[in-house]
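SAMPLE LOG
Freezer: B-3
Tube label: C17
Construct: single chain, 398 aa
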Amino acid sequence: MTESAGDVLGRARVCPHCGEVAGAAENCVGCGLYLAALPELPSRDQWLAGRAEAVANGSATDADGSGEIGHAYAAGPAAATHVGMQDQSRGAPVARGSITPLLHPTEPSRLALALVASAAALLLPLLIMIHTGGIGSVLLVLVTVFGTIWVGIQLSRARLLGRSVRVDANTFPEVQEIVDVVCETLDYRRRLEVYVTEKATPSIVTTSLLGTRMIVIEGDLVADLLPPHKRAQLTFLIGRSVGALRARHMQLELVIRILEAAEVLKYVFPLIRPYYRATAYSGDQIGMMCCSDLDAALEATRRLLVGPGMASELTAGAVVPQALLVKQRLLPGLVQLLAVEPHVTNRYANLLCFGRYHVPDLWERLFASMDEHERRCLDEIWQRSPYRWRVQGSMRQA
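STRUCTURE (predicted):
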């Protein structure tokens, strides 16, 4: 079942004191409360429900932590629903349209690293151009680069119009319905073109550059995932793409084109790759929340490992021991440093940890289906996750 944006983002974990969305840091960015000491954080819906009840009972106190508000959630999530926080009119923690709670915790820091590295790499060529030709030469080069990129995008779009079918209510109504639901869930309102083509590498390609936003999906993939029992997987994949647009995961594409034109990309790309690996994790998380089905998200990820024919043959826990091995070994980590995307096993492990934090009911059912060895391996993976300290208790053993 696909949920609304309010349902998805209402599960975001927040600080029990001020209602600010909890990041990966141990202290709240809003009020400084030491969140790591708390057994479990409330969801945004729990926080708002507790605030509303406290206001109705006249027991709400100020946001300075005085009285029962500042420490209520330390008693557990149930107690938190009976204690209020500051009035919503004084500042809600996150707007319903915010996608921040669904992003991987490492994404902001890796984006900062990529931006600093890109700026440093462009500084020397820019100074040389200004010294030799002045500002006019810099502007001429930028106009030329932008114009070349724009023309290239329009030519690609023209080829798609001639060699594929654009998705709408008449051509592929079921696909269009999924796109509409995902856009509504993520509160994405910008113009978006979706095409189904015979072949695409990878199977779904997302483009966002100079105002052109397109998603190209391989026809065989759509045909395989359109049946009702597999449609959640297609929702997951489309959610990843729309989520990337909503979170502006391709905001560095134009910078990369400029770095490439300046012939300095190879020197800084190792510092940019970590950001793209973080966006891959974020995309998986956004897609999972769009389809509201952890099993479907994991099976769609297993397709990347063994292909569509064998993905359903693997149980949810079968990949877990190998995912732990990849995390423990040095060489797989070194190989990943050279890649734009993380190992698929690492993405699989991240989805499991994210699912335990954001959709514990689905995770509990999945965890119960694993054998004892898989549970132990998953527990070790959990200890390496940035979400580990936000959930009360440890894994239950069989």
